Amino acid sequence: MDRLYLATIWAAGAAIFFMSLIIPWGVFSRYVMGTGSQWPEPIAILLMMVFTFIGAAAAYRAGGHIAVNMLTEKLPASAQWVLGWAVDLLMLVICGFVTWYGTRLCIETWGQGISELPWLPVGATYSPLPLGAAITFVFVVEKCFFGPQTHRRIVRYEELAEGA
Q: CA-to-CA distance for 59 and 8, rounded, in angstroms?
């Protein structure tokens, strides 16, 4: 799970890095060179989808997602426990729904092309949606069985590289 988590962080980081290179190129080619490139915008949108949905899975596992705890913190411990399980169950349902229907969306639109990038199927641009939902589903299951990642020992990158 730590390797999957690390992969999601790297994928989201790479997406935002390449986006920060592609957008200035689009601006430069349009306003300095006078010839706007057609490819920067759709590629940047695809990278933003990767950053959003794959990065959201990493944020969920790290406990860095948006959570409103003001009400639940006022409740007794037993009610907090029940609400925690209800939230996890709802997350599983939502992630399952998005994975299932997102995959169907990708399959159904795979034969369509993007006008600016005819080599890129529309279904491929939607693929971060079900992929991110499936990874989040796995992270929710992990949380249900092993508790939040924030309460476990942090495995350093060096330990992962050594196969620990």
A: 9
Q: How many CA atoms lie within 13 A of 23 on its CB side?
A: 11
Beta-bridged to residue 113, according to DSSP, are 121
How many Å apart are CA 163 and CA 19, to the nearest integer?
32
Interval 46-65: pLDDT, tens: 999 999 999 999 998 888 77
pLDDT tens track for 117-137: 888 898 888 999 999 999 999
Length of the chain: 164
CA–CA distance from 117 to each of 59, 76, 86 (Å)?
Answer: 31, 55, 43
* Tens digits of residue pLDDT in 91-118: 999 999 999 999 999 999 998 988 888 8
Closest CA to 140 of 15, 4, 47: 4
Report the phi/psi class of residue 102: left, alpha or beta, with left for phi > 0 and alpha for psi in -120 to 50.
alpha
pTM, two decimals, is: 0.81
Domain layout of the chain by residue ranges: 2-162
> What tokens were used for 21?
């290179």
